[in-house]
Amino acid sequence: MYMSRVPPRLKPQRLRSLLESARLGNVKVTRLYLKPSSSLVSSSSSSSLKSSKVKSKSANKTFSEGWIELSRRRDARQLADLLNGQPMGGRRRAANYSDLWNLKYLKGFTWDQLSAEQAYKSRARESRIANEVANAKAERDAFAEAVRRGKAEKAMAERRAKNNNNNDNNKANKAAAAADARVLRTFSQRAAVGGDDDRFGGGKTTSKQTRTAVGGNVSKTLLARMFE
User: Of 8, 14, 2, 16, which Cα lies nearest the Cα of 117?
Assistant: First the structure.
């Protein structure tokens, strides 16, 4: 049988007890599987749970659907027809007293098919989780690689700027050293000879000028003697 809806707080032991105590007679539940649900317990159920003094570990665990196998197929068909749409009953103060049964007989369905389906879903879920983990790891590796590349580029830029600064400093130091080591070219000059006449006429006199000067002096001496 297939149970399309499992009421909140209905546990497998309680479900087995309700089915085996049905008015059909001697019913034996051989296997029972309830699929866990990720949905939370309803507000009314949670409020009643808070008011209770004793809470079991599985008090908040809920199930979405279930599969039930009976010892005889005839009992399963009759039980599904008898209970479907009827209140679950039991004690009046029970949590699921007013909940309705949702049962359907699955003709030709075997428990092996359910096991194979659950195994397939489990493998699909594991594959999906593995893909998500692989994608997350790839994103993490890509982010780490981007961070590493950014740090490397930053370090390279800093080294390049430092090298350029050092080159500029070296050029400035070389230019300063060249300016300090530069020697001005000097030319040697001969010292001036003679007095003021040398500045205007030069320091040397020609033989013609000497003869003229000597002749003039002799003439002046002779004239002076004649008129004494």
Answer: 2
* Predicted local confidence at residue 217, as pLDDT: 54
Between 166 and 10, the more confident residue is 10
In angstroms, what is the C-alpha Rg of the chain? 61
Task: Name the H helices within 65-195.
Answer: 73-83, 111-181
Contact yes or no for 41/6 (Cβ under 8 A) = no
Q: What is the mean pLDDT of residues 191-205?
A: 51
| 3-class SS of residue 70 | strand
Q: Which residue has the higher pLDDT, 32 or 216?
A: 32
Number of CB atoms found within 10 A of residue 24's CB: 15
Residues contacting residue 75 through CB under 8 Å, at least 6 positions apart: 24, 27, 28
Nearest to 9 by CA among 60, 44, 54: 60
The answer to whether the pTM exceeds 0.70 is no
Residue 227, SS3 per DSSP: coil
What is the C-alpha separation between 70 and 18, in angstroms, rounded?
13
